[in-house]
Amino acid sequence: MKMRNIVLIGMPGCGKTTIGKLLAESLNMKFCDVDAYIQENTKKSISEIFKEGEAVFRSIERKAVEKISKEYNIVISTGGGVVKSFVNIQNLKKNGIIIFINRPIEKIFEDIDISTRPLIKDRKEKLYLLYKERYALYKKYCDIEVMNTQTLKEVVEKIINSLSGDEKIENINH
Ligand SMILES: Nc1ncnc2c1ncn2[C@@H]1O[C@H](COP(=O)(O)OP(=O)(O)O)[C@@H](O)[C@H]1O
Ligand SMILES: O=C(O)C1=C[C@@H](OP(=O)(O)O)[C@@H](O)[C@H](O)C1
Ligand SMILES: [Mg+2]
């Protein structure tokens, strides 16, 4: 059966990669992290790609999102900047339900590893700028918003409960 993808969006460091993996395990779905997919396919780290310019990364990201969005039954963890391109959202929405992982910026600030995030590696405070730029986009493009203020296990349960009845049954019983 072809089932909708579950797509996680949100700020860098909000927990998309970590939660996506756990969610996929719980729902017995495949998992794809867009950044990991890009790194595997280009054989370069995200930081190396960013050295060629953000535009280069965004172009690779768009192509990756287009490709991954054609699949079904996957939990997709996006990179925080995926909302910068409306084409990405159109592609992700075709087969997917979009979930905004909303983690308070102060909490993100506490435990984010900036060394692997080139946009903020020189200045952690840049997170606040990104938050200002993007918060409205995450809100606008999501189908469901889930606060990430509990344990990871609790947040995963909350996401599963927030899926509509039919979807939950489809996703759990596939
Ligand atoms: N609810 C939570 N409890 C504990 N740690 C969390 C929680 N949510 C996120 N984290 C931590 O935040 C960090 C960033 O998570 P990550 O999955 O890499 O975020 P993203 O993919 O959104 O950038 C990780 O160390 C992760 O374990
Ligand atoms: O916010 C962004 O623009 C980015 C977030 C990163 O992913 P995470 O959101 O998983 O940190 C990664 O895609 C890249 O460094 C750009
Ligand atoms: Mg990530």
TrEMBL record:
InterPro entries documented for this protein: Shikimate/glucono_kinase, Shikimate_kinase/TSH1, Shikimate_kinase_CS
Keyword GTP-binding: no
Location relative to the cell: Cytoplasm
Keywords: Amino-acid biosynthesis, Aromatic amino acid biosynthesis, ATP-binding, Cytoplasm, Kinase, Magnesium, Metal-binding, Nucleotide-binding, Transferase
GO MF annotations, alphabetized: kinase activity
Pathway(s) of this molecule: Metabolic intermediate biosynthesis; chorismate biosynthesis; chorismate from D-erythrose 4-phosphate and phosphoenolpyruvate: step 5/7
Binding site for Mg(2+): 17
Keyword rRNA processing assigned: no
Enzymatic reactions: shikimate + ATP = 3-phosphoshikimate + ADP + H(+)
Superkingdom, taxonomy of origin: Bacteria
Binding site for ATP: 13-18, 117
Cofactor note: Binds 1 Mg(2+) ion per subunit.
Cofactor(s) in the UniProt record: Mg(2+)
Catalytic class of the enzyme: transferase
The protein's Enzyme Commission number: 2.7.1.71
Amino-acid positions noted as binding substrate in the UniProt annotation, renumbered to this chain: 35, 58, 80, 134
Alphabetical list of HAMAP family matching this protein: Shikimate_kinase
Function: Catalyzes the specific phosphorylation of the 3-hydroxyl group of shikimic acid using ATP as a cosubstrate.
Family, as annotated: Belongs to the shikimate kinase family.
Assembly description: Monomer.
Name the record gives this protein: Shikimate kinase
Organism from which the protein derives: Crassaminicella indica
